[in-house]
Amino acid sequence: MNNAAKILDIIKLNTFHEETWRYDGRVLDQTEHSVLIEARFNRDDFFFHEILLRENDRFVERYYADRWYNIFAIHDKDDDRIKGWYCNVTYPAEITADRVTYVDLALDLLAYPDGRYLILDEDEFADLELDQETSEKARQALDQLIQLAKNGGLARVTT
């Protein structure tokens, strides 16, 4: 399959399975259990925890059908420098021929190129009415993301 020209819809759902964001992305790579997408940031410029997100910044996004997270590498639209990695704790993604759909579980990790990281939205995660198994898997996913942030793994999975 020639992934270079293949475009997928990316659909983010909340825990009620309501669509909260939709955009398209170009497939860069695909394996049996994951897909790597290139997309452009489609919102107005704003600062987000020390990172200026700008309209048309390049995002390289790895989605997994067998892991409880996804990882977005954020590149500057002008010079392509890496600004950071945004990681969503999610149910495993549903990857089909024309779309990637994922259910966001609110818990996030933001990692900076200098090695720092922030855990975000723990309060929103705590407010979700999740069963114990889902809550435990989400926490395990966050632990895995922290380890990837500490050992340089976020860059490896988004290139």
Q: In terms of topology, how is this protein built?
A:
Blueprint lengths: L6 E7 L5 E12 L3 E7 L5 E3 L2 E3 L4 E7 L4 E7 L6 E9 L3 E2 L3 E13 L5 E4 L1 H6 L4 H20 L1 H5 L2
Parallel strand pairs: 1-10
Antiparallel strand pairs: 1-2, 2-3, 3-6, 4-5, 6-7, 7-8, 8-10, 9-10, 10-11
Describe the structure.
With 159 residues, the chain is an alpha+beta fold. It has helices at 122-127, 132-151, 153-157, and strands spanning 7-13, 19-30, 34-40, 46-48, 51-53, 58-64, 69-75, 82-90, 94-95, 99-111, 117-120. The protein contains 3 helices and 11 strands; from the N terminus they run βββββββββββααα. Strands 1-2-3-6-7-8-10 form a 7-stranded mixed β-barrel. The chain is globular. The model has no long low-confidence stretch (mean pLDDT 94).
Rg on CA atoms, Å: 15 Å
Determine the fraction of residues in helical runs and give it as a percent range: 10-25%
Helix segment count?
Answer: 3
- String of helices and strands: EEEEEEEEEEEHHH
Concise summary:
With 159 residues, the protein is α+β, with helices and mostly antiparallel strands.
Identify the notable features of this structure and list them briefly.
11 strands; two-stranded antiparallel sheet; FomD barrel-like fold; 7-stranded mixed barrel; 19% helix; 159 residues
